[in-house]
Amino acid sequence: MPLSFLIASAVGIFSGVKWNIPETVTEAINDALPVMGILMGVGMFIQIMTLIGVRGFVVVSALALPAWLLYVGIATSMPLFGAVSAFGSASVLGVPFLLALLGRNEILVGSALSLIAGLGDLMPPTALAGIFAAQVVGEKNYFRVLRFCVVPGLLTAVWGIAVILGAQYIAGILY
Amino acid sequence: MTIVYRAIALFILVFVLRCMFREKDFWKQVTATMVVIPLVLRILLIK
Hints:
- In chain A, helix 4 packs across helix 6 and helix 5 (about 85-100) packs antiparallel against helix 6 (about 105-120).
- Chain A has one domain (about 35-175).
- Chain A is built from ten helices and no strands.
- By secondary structure, chain A is an all-alpha fold.
- Chain A is about 75% helix and about 0% strand.
- Helix content of chain B is about 85%, strand content about 0%.
- Chain B is built from two helices and no strands.
- The relative contact order of chain B is 0.19.
- The chains are: A mainly alpha, B mainly alpha.
């Protein structure tokens, strides 16, 4: 994937417009450095969580929820864990939740969990989606961007849970 | 394929180092240093 991105970017060299390649690449890397720093911190955090057993504790606690609370747990814990990392949320919580929901259509449940895990990118302080969106529109305070995402985010979580609940029924229509 | 992977990591590392030495703000330099570590480890294929 990095190679395809690199090749796609390299096409810009032959666009006909003359530009300073090293300066542009340096500027792009410079803009991306704060986000890369966040991802570094998040990676270290997850590694330390795994090392000291907190990751396992979080997973066991999530799975120990009563059946009726499982869905509430999915809708809250996955986006909340996204404050650390949405990718972390998908790997740390997504897989155990998928295993807890075995017996339904796993493809649909996995897709719905991915949808819910994606909401983690709106969760401060990491809030990568909010930070990127704020950068694009030139807004300094990314909380102003996140404010507009609250209602769509809630609707997305409800939709994800609805798909999990109706996975069998939806699978019956699709397959 | 590994050589391409390492070449891409090296390419990014060079520009991150360039940013780091050009940067005036101390904390941004620290961020760049943090980013350099996994890139160096990846180039050396250390897990």
